[in-house]
Amino acid sequence: MRGRFITLEGGEGVGKSTQARMLAEALQAAGHNPLLTREPGGTPGAEAIRALLLDPAQHFSPASETLLFAAARADHVSQAIEPALAAGRWVVCDRFLDSTRAYQGGEGGMTDTEICTLHAVGSRGLLPDLTLLLSAAPEQVAERLAARDGDSSDRIGGRPADYHRAVASRFAALASMEPERFRVIAATGTPEEVHTRIMTVVERLA
Hints:
This protein has 8 helices and 5 strands. The chain is α/β, with parallel strands linked by helices. It has a 5-stranded parallel beta sheet, sandwiched between helices. The longest helix is centred in the middle third of the chain and has 25 residues, at 62-86. The model has no long low-confidence stretch (mean pLDDT 91).
């Protein structure tokens, strides 16, 4: 039986990585032997591209940036995600296609059609069974980012506040466009409280 594919999405500082780890641990306890992975990254080749993409010293055009994300994802899908799903494992991924649609689409200058066409070619159009969109108030996000990054942000995280507000709006629009796949999770309260909300949704998938 093919495994299930769950992605966690959202802007900077909403707690995706923490919640991905907690979800994978819960699935492990339930006997699913999940693959916990991330984007960009997840394979040696994709991690090498990640280092380029997040390096503040690099300057890529919107098209170049989008192509790099698509290349990293293609390697990730073929070398890690698809084999795990084919083996019946559940996959939990911190960011996937929808992050590219939200960050490089809209404010990034690329159209959704262009991004999805690249995905169809590079990753055969693979989509998650469930996408958890974490959402938090801007002031809470600002506090988390200050605690996490201090004065040091990567090339994308360090972009202006207006850019990140536009990204959050784009994520909300994507969730509205595809309600059968997306579930919006309030990322407020303690990590344990957010995890409980997530598990309520994930248990329905099983």
